[in-house]
Design brief:
Layout: H1 2-19, H2 40-60, H3 86-102, H4 121-143, H5 146-168
């Protein structure tokens, strides 16, 4: 079920990217009608974690060598799906870059109920690192070169680590987002 949601998320991002008439912006825009539906942990588990795993998988398995599932339209592995191979890695990079915008929507809370620390200057920096890491993965996937993916995963690992060290890696859940 979660994989189907991931596939739908990727498809939506592809459609939005392909149908966009404006040039990409490096500064996040928060539309007035943006709504928060999940807490930070849910967004991380539903979008960032699975898409990061697709990118990390491309380090050791060349996506071009992955055979499509017997029914790629219902595949639970994005790399073996109908939009699989390197396209899945590209889409995951874009999903990470786009998810940075979700982390800047006011009103989102952490799993413990504390507000996401958007007012902290380092938060914006960590979100930008995520956006940059997603775009690095996207560009590396476009090159279809695993050496480039290795460099992109290093960027992604560092982006995750910087934020997690400050806000996630705490002795107990109540201390997170502080």
């Amino acid at each position: 079920m979660r994989k189907n949601v991931l596939v739908l998320t990727i498809l939506t991002l592809i459609l939005l990217t392909n149908n966009s008439c404006s040039s990409p912006s490096s500064s996040p825009a928060t539309p007035e009608n943006a709504q928060v539906h999940g807490n930070l942990a849910q967004v991380m588990r539903g979008i960032l974690f699975p898409n990061s795993n697709v990118i990390f998988a491309a380090q050791s398995t060349n996506p071009a060598d992955v055979k499509l599932a017997s029914d790629p339209s219902t595949a639970t592995d994005p790399i073996a799906s109908v939009y699989g191979g390197w396209m899945a890695v590209e889409s995951s990079g874009l999903a990470l870059a786009e998810s940075a915008n979700l982390l800047m929507i006011p009103g989102r809370t952490c799993q413990n109920g504390k507000p996401v620390p958007m007012q902290n200057p380092d938060w914006a920096g960590f979100v930008q690192e995520l956006r940059d890491a997603g775009m690095a993965a996207y560009k590396a996937a476009q090159s279809k070169n695993q050496d480039n993916i290795l460099m992109a995963t290093d960027t992604l690992t560092n982006a995750c680590m910087h934020c997690h060290e400050k806000y996630r890696e705490k002795p107990d859940d109540a201390a997170r987002c502080s």
